Amino acid sequence: MSAPAPLLPAPAERLTAWGTLRDRLLLDPEWRRVISWLAPLVITALAAVLRLANLAHPHTLAFDETYYVKDAWSLWLLGYEGTWGDGANQAFLTGDTSTLGTSGSFVVHPPLGKWIIALGMGLFGAGNSAAWRLMIALIGTATVLLVYFVAKELTRSIVAASVAGLLIAIDGLSIVMSRIGLLDGILTFFVLLGFFFILIDRRRSIPLVEYAAPDDRELLWGPIIWRRPWVVAAGVALGAATAVKWSGLYALAGFGIYLVVTDALARRRAGVAYWPMDAVARQGVVSFVLLVPVAVVTYLVTWTGWLVTAGGYDRQSDATPFVALWKYHEAIYAFHVGLDSGHPYASPAWEWPLLIRPTAVWVGGDGACGTDHCMSVISTVPNPLIWYAGVASAIYLLYRFVLGLIERRPMPWTYGLPLVGIGVTYVPWLLYPERTIFQFYTVVMVPFLVLALVLALRDIAGRREDPLYRRQAGERTVTVFLVVVVLVSAFYYPVWTGMSVPYEFWLIHNWMPTWV
What we know:
globular, 61% helix
């Protein structure tokens, strides 16, 4: 019987020209250092251009700017929100603020977001529409940079972080909410900042627990860690978020629960005998002390103008300022729970994943567009590909999570964090099906949907240890997707910024009848 033929080596796998260049850039230490600072700089510059260009348009109080912008100017002058007389909106556009009275006005959102809006008007004047949107645009630009750093901390990948930053930079909802003087863009920044600090704390504190047991001996109790400065920083950020809108409380509570759960799981991995009780009754109390009181103090500080003056709404309801503030908060809470009046753009939370009813925050008259019938609209519709792909990616991560529980094979911990962010920014709204709420509230969800999408795209692109043919096919798929996403954003940019366009051109942007 003849001897078997010797096995011949397989033909060498060769990278494409792009793959060779990519690996050379990303694997060379010098190039990595250059790209690590150049990528966020370029992405942030792109975000700034998209958010700051022609920021003064439209020169009118769009949607709820009629409340927040005028309240911001009142805070700047009086320290609290005063009442405005008849014709205030038209007079305000010319810089005439004489209709502002000194009696307190009942407002239903805390003051921090309006103080931030007021900074731009304090610099450039009340009648300048770019001024009352300036700080919103700058914070929206900073949010893009923050998404980059969150994604890099989450994935340890410059490429993944760059993709995340690019997606949030060109997303329509994020652009619109950075160009209109509403509060939700500011809320997004502080919620994401708190998330970033929690993520940093996780990387630093979890190893202290997991390696606490010497020589693999079982511990009855794990270590109590007080030195967690990033939890304190998260408390400040989430307290600020709550001081913009009360929905920041959902993030504070959700991220606090996440701290306890991850501490418990770390103690379990470390072999701590009483790990549930240890995480809740011992470390959990410490985490609460580090997180919540700081958030409360931060929140109260933002009410300083109301506390130290005498004219604010309900300020004289009690001789003790903090008792009066509590009564005012009771009135605000009663307003929110009873808010069920109809609105043509109202959209309950169950509709949000389907993107059924975006909000037109401004509709202008006919302008010059080269045809007889023109439209000028600012719509909060996000880039549909980013939105639907982000929702699908979140479902994919949830599937991986459930499958891991069933098979007792946990997914990578990084996959769970976007789900936590989506959970705290979306799920609570499902509890209020009758309340008047809007699709643009989802701007706080968008960074977490983008993070979920980036993780899913990484799985599609493949890992370095995967066969070369699979990686190349995956990378081509991801590249094509990203190119199409950029083109869709370019297509939608006119209706995100209120450009005057032909009616037929505007009409083809409405992919559903309910978008009109």
